[in-house]
Amino acid sequence: MKKIKVYMHISENSGVGYYRLYLPALSLIESGLADVRINDFKFGEGDHVPISDKVLFDMCNWADIIVVGRLDQAEFYAKWGAIKETFNIPIVMDTDDNVHNVPITNPGYTGYAPNSSAKVWDTYAMEKVFDAITTTTDSLKSYYEKYHPRIYILPNNLDIGEWLKHSRKPHKKLRLGFMCSSAHADGFGIIQKPLYEILPKYPDVEFYYPDMYWRIFEHCPEKIRKQLKKVQWIKLQDWPKKLTELSIDIGLAPLRDNYFNRGKSNLRYLEYALAGMSPIVSPVEPYKCVENEKTGLVAREMSDWNVAIERLINDEKLRNTIASNAKDYVINSYNVYKNSKLWYNAYREIIEKFRDFYGKKKEYEYIGKDKYKRV
Fold first, then answer.
1. Within this chain, do residues 214 and 258 fall inside the same structural domain, yes or no?
2. Is residue 157 within 8 Å of residue 339, measured between CB atoms?
């Protein structure tokens, strides 16, 4: 297979930038299928360094295809439109959320409220600027097809080797956990009542959750207060190590069924499994990959959460079997280095279709003093 040259422009110095562009870039390089360059990535620490116009021009002059992380700003998309015209090169938008249906309870709603400029420019960019869209799920593809005819599904994958480097730590008390970002307050609404009913019955069970959600449990029953364990913010680069070392036995993944959540990926489940947890999930689109009773338990109603949690608390054999099955499933199915061909095949097809329609790329030669001439 011919190597392709890919420039990946990471727009977010965050988990989105890591999973959607940085990690696929590493997998393409290691596979030998592509030469890949990125602009900047610091694992969420420090300032995201803007690329200079000279370096950006050189990157685009070098590349066969450009992949851009979504950043819904007019000037950002105007730049990529100009680059497409200048170089006659395919430019792809990668997006991993349904930003047109952000619920009011989500912190992102402030930027994506109805008629917000971000939503307007996101739609415009999909329809007018980019030559293809890559995204994470069937649900997102189905939604965004009304804006663009060429959408490719590239699921979130993990660096399996990095996760397997770390080990769980021995502990005496059984541990439940819901480890999530700042956008999951609704999830606590699903499991709070079951936790308040279950924890008093099992004083040797602890519940771990992100410190940012401390207010949810501010008025919890006094008798379970010592069973609630706040987890301080974990840096992105430390996430596989720290999540594994928390040694959570039962990972809770509650999720409301709405248009936004249907577009989410199964990333939480993947990470729970690699950290050695036995997962319990809601029956929503992201967790359709879970085989009930084998690679996880599915809790359909709030009362099902009580049953599922107590079942795994009391049945160590089932708990360990599900954890083992889930881990094997993720290792075999979601290894970014084994799945690098997904990215290669998508990018290769986009390049070929673009060339068939628009012709060869425009290339330029540097002649000094920040000037170029068309080759």
1. yes
2. yes
Shared domain for 177 and 301, answered yes or no, is yes
Handedness of CA 343, 344, 345, 351 (dihedral sign): positive
Residues 173 and 322 in one domain: yes
* Residue-range definition of the domain harbouring residue 17: 4-157+336-374
Write down how long the chain is: 375
Residue type, position 156, single letter = N
- The label of the residue with tokens 């739609």 reads 123
324 and 361 co-located in one domain: no
User: DSSP 3-state assignment of 67?
Assistant: strand
Residue 353 CB-half CA count within 13 A: 12
pLDDT in tens, 288-317: 999 999 999 999 988 999 999 999 999 999
What's 272's domain CATH number? 3.40.50.2000
Number of domains in the chain: 2
Cβ distance 203 to 224 under 8 Å? no
* 20 and 77 both lie in a single domain: yes
Q: Is 257 exposed, middle or buried (0-12, 13-18, 19+ CB in 10 A)?
A: exposed
pLDDT tens digit sequence for 200-257: 999 999 999 999 999 999 999 999 999 999 999 999 999 999 999 999 999 999 999 9
Q: Are residues 15 and 150 in the same domain?
A: yes
Nearest to 278 by CA among 302, 314, 242, 303: 314
CB 251 within 8 A of CB 179: yes
The whole-model pTM stands at: 0.95
